[in-house]
Amino acid sequence: MEDRLERLLSKYWEGETSLDQEKEIKILLEQVEGFETEKKFFLGIKVISQVAPEVFEVKAKSKRSSNMLFKIAAALVIFLTVGGAIYRYQEQKAEKEAFLQVMQAFNMIQTNMQKGTESLNAMEEFKHLNATEEMFNINETKK
Amino acid sequence: MKTFFEAHIWSLKNKLYRMAFLWVKDKDIAQDVLQAVFEKAWLRKEALQKMENPTGWMVRCLKNESLMHFRVSKRFESIGDLDLHSENEEVEDKTAEVKLVFAFLESLPEKQREIFQLREVEGLTYEEISEYLEITIDQVKVNLHRARKTLREYLMNQKHGR
Question: Which residue out of B18, B119, B154 would a mutagenesis test of the A interface target, given it has the greatest number of A Cβ atoms within 10 Å?
């Protein structure tokens, strides 16, 4: 058994052992006497090879994070749509008010123009009179 | 029937955890690193399925996450600089045997250390190691041979109390 271990270890140091032979070395080391340092080292390897992670869930967490991103994106779209609609409504309202103010101003101008034109109508009767004499019958007065 | 992720990616978790543990030397940090890697992998599961070597991608991702951890804490510049005897090391659950292994791994260059741990701790074939580390089988053999040569000297020094 010891000879077998010696032979296998010689091959092992040269990197010429198969995985099965390496397993055999570890089994033989547990059975033979001596080889204390090798035993200690391979026991350390064995302990490390049994270390395992705690149970954890990847999918659920990733799904949660993608759901969260989806919710944020949806909220952003709703916010932009509603915000855009309100902005357009305010803009149209402002345009309408400006239009009404302009129209009121035009109406006022038109009314005043009309008043001015009517006051000038009284002068129409005098436009055929050619002279001041005709207007005030000055000739007849002279006679 | 198992999905691609369950069969080819999720099944790597124990090996990747131990790789991270040997790099960062802290089980909690190794757990965080592993979880971050699997979250990234899950988000890229379709792309991983199309990859020629998804295992290699996972190992690279694990290395980057481990490095990221150390860069954030500004302790190390590369995996090769990992100090296995750092003062912050959590040694409470490390036996003398485990410490012996850690001390030996510290003495190895980065590539030899990775190959040695995949062979000795995980029991992977040369082909599997070449896939994990994205290197040739010859490189695996040469580096493993050198690592074992160093191990032989290391154990002899231990025997003689040097």
Answer: B18
The residues of chain B scoring below 70 in pLDDT are 73-94, 162
User: Domains in chain B, start-ordered, CATH in brackets?
Assistant: 1-85 (no CATH), 94-162 (1.10.10.10)
**What is the phi/psi pair of residue B41, to 5°?**
-60, -40
Q: Where are the domains of chain A?
A: 2-49
Q: What's the ipTM?
A: 0.80
Please indicate whether, in this complex, the C-beta atoms of A48 and B101 are within 8 angstroms of each other: yes
Taking a C-beta distance cutoff of 8 angstroms, is the pair B1, A23 a contact? no
Handedness of CA B12, B102, B146, A45 (dihedral sign): negative
Chain A residues with CB inside 8 Å of B158's CB?
37, 40
Least Cα distance to A10 among B101, B149, B113 occurs for B149
Q: Which pLDDT score, from 0 to 100, does residue A31 have?
A: 93
CB contact under 8 A, B122 and A53: no
- Between chains, do A56 and B14 touch, taking CB under 8 Å as contact? no
* B161 φψ region: left (φ > 0), alpha (ψ -120 to 50), beta (else): left
B10 Cβ contact list (under 8 Å, min separation 6): A58, B38
Structure tokens at A129: 């009179």
Partner residue opposite B38 with nearest CB, options A22, A23, A58: A58
Q: Is B109 left (phi over 0), alpha (psi -120 to 50) or beta?
A: beta
CA atoms within 13 A on the CB side of A122: 3
Stated pTM of the model: 0.65
Mean pLDDT, residues A4-17: 93
Chain A residue numbers with beta carbons less than 8 Å from the beta carbon of B104 are: 41
At B31-52, the pLDDT tens digits run: 999 999 999 999 998 999 999 9
